[in-house]
Prior knowledge:
This protein has 285 residues and is mainly α. It has eight helices and three strands; from the N terminus they run ββαβααααααα. It folds into three domains: 19-105, Herpes Virus-1 (2-Layer Sandwich); 106-210; 213-284. 71% of the residues lie in helices and 5% in strands. It is rod-shaped. The N and C termini lie far apart (173 Å). The chain binds zinc ion (2 copies).
Amino acid sequence: MDNDLICNYKKCRKRLTTFAWVTSCSHIFCDEDGTREFNKCYTCPACETSLSDKFDIVRIDLQPSEQYKSMVLAGQRPEVIMEICSRAMSFWTYQSHQERTYQEYMCNKAKERSVQLEKYYEQVLSTTQAELSSLKNQISANRKELESTKKRFNEVSEKLMERNRQHQKLQSMYDALRRRTITPSSFDGQLGRAPPAALRGHDSSFDMPIATGQDVLARQSSLSNVLRPAGTPPEKEFVLRPSSTPVQLNLSHQDLSSVHIVQNRFNMELGTPSKRAGGYRRGAD
Ligand SMILES: [Zn+2]
Ligand SMILES: [Zn+2]
């Protein structure tokens, strides 16, 4: 397998095992590439040498039959046989050398690329490590800050709880003091205020029984009675005299009569001090 030649067409580079095209410029191509390219023109696709002679391009079988092997060089003189063999061997050596050179070139190229990539990734690695170390430093600094903040929070919460306890104690003390101090004073205040109210209540309650039934009814029914002091004996006597209505009078009749009385009384009082009016009235009468 290592002795197999490779198609010289740049884009192909196929390992040759069955049929191949061989040129006088010592190049070899696979069956597909050779057939396609040499149908276009007789120019080597690898080195662009013009191949116009009859034996410049030959299609060969890479797996020759036993009969072909027996017959191809049969009858030739030994020096011809040896010359043909040596030329075929030199073709193979050239192809192998070409392939080795190409592989070395590719290897060097790959090495250069690998060196470049190594440098690039070393840079990337160093920058990433630097970033990582800075991030680690930041994380440790953040942790320290977090711990200090936690400590501060705990201290402040303890202080707050202490303050709350003090506040509750003070509140309870304040409540107790208020209960002790305010309760008697309010009791006194109630006592101080109570007697007048009670007295007033007594007064009002006492008013009711004292007042006569007629007075109460009159007070409830009319406003005119308010102007006049309740329970004045002369008015009561006056009420009875002018009204000739029967005894079964209802409230409205009484009210009317009382209004008449007030008017009468007013006239009389007006007439009494002024001599002229009285004189005039008397004259008119
Ligand atoms: Zn090919
Ligand atoms: Zn060539």
